[in-house]
Every structure is written in structure tokens, then in C-alpha cells.
Amino acid sequence: VQLVESGGGLVQPGGSLKLSCAASGFTFSSYTMRWYRQAPGKERELVASITSAGGSTNYADSVKGRFTISRDNGKNMVYLQMNSLKPEDTAVYYCYAIRGYLTYWGQGTQVTVSS
């Protein structure tokens, strides 16, 4: 099983980034997918979630209206489009898969929002 994130980097406030997560080794289309983030000295927090078929999404209040989660079950990919980025969005972003008691984490990708 692998979840491999990409797309992180340094961006100025107000900018955009699109994170990608490539999944392999499990039946991706059967899993709810989530993005979490963890800033230095803070607990890991849920950012966004999307159901297995992509019919329902949920977002943390702090990112509503700015971030969009999506998935492509044909490509085993999940994405996080991040717009209007703020310095407080700086964190390591993790991809996460869950189906019942089965859970998998990616290794994370760093997002830094700074001028």
C-alpha cells in the first residue's frame, strides 16, 4: 500500500497550490479519502474529506470556500486545490485513506505560505 503526495512548496499569501496524492496497493474506489495537515507545534487536523464515489465532501471551517477536494477513481488519485492561501495554512499536508478499520497514511508534503 502506498499513498504518495506531491505538489507542495513555497507560495506567497493569496497564491494557489494543488496537492496530489497517488494511491496504490488497495481498492482506492472503496475508500473515503481525506487530507490532514500538521503545523509545527500543533496537532494534526482534518482539512477535507471526500466519500468513495466522490458524492460528498466536507471541509474544516478554516478552509471552506478556499480549498476543494476531488478524486479520480480511474487514476487512483485524490487532489486538494488550495486557493487564497494564508500564512496559517503552512503545514505538512497528509493524504489519508479509510474504509472501516483499514487506514493508510501518506508521508506528507510541505506547504509553506510566506512572502
Blueprint (SSEs and pairs):
Layout (H helix, E strand, L loop, with lengths): L1 E5 L2 E3 L5 E8 L7 E7 L6 E6 L6 E3 L7 E6 L4 E6 L8 E9 L2 E4 L3 E5 L2
Parallel strand pairs: 2-11
Antiparallel strand pairs: 1-3, 3-8, 4-5, 4-9, 5-6, 7-8, 9-10, 9-11
Which short descriptors sum up this protein?
115 residues, mainly beta, 11 strands, seven-stranded mixed sheet
Description of the structure:
With 115 residues, this protein is mainly β. 0% of the residues lie in helices and 54% in strands. It is built from no helices and 11 strands. The strands form 2 sheets. Strands 2, 4, 5, 6, 9, 10 and 11 form a 7-stranded mixed β-sheet that branches. The protein is globular, with a radius of gyration of 13 Å. The relative contact order is 0.32.
Give a short synopsis of this structure.
This protein has 115 residues and is an all-beta fold.
Number of strands: 11
Question: Helix share of residues?
Answer: under 10%
Mean pLDDT, all residues: 97
Report the total helices: 0
Profile the largest sheet.
7 strands, mixed
**Class per helix and strand makeup:** mainly beta
**CA-based shape:** globular
Order of helices and strands: EEEEEEEEEEE
Strand residue percentage = over 45%
Low-confidence stretches: none
How far apart are the first and last residues' alpha carbons, in Å? 37 Å
**Rg (CA only):** 13 Å
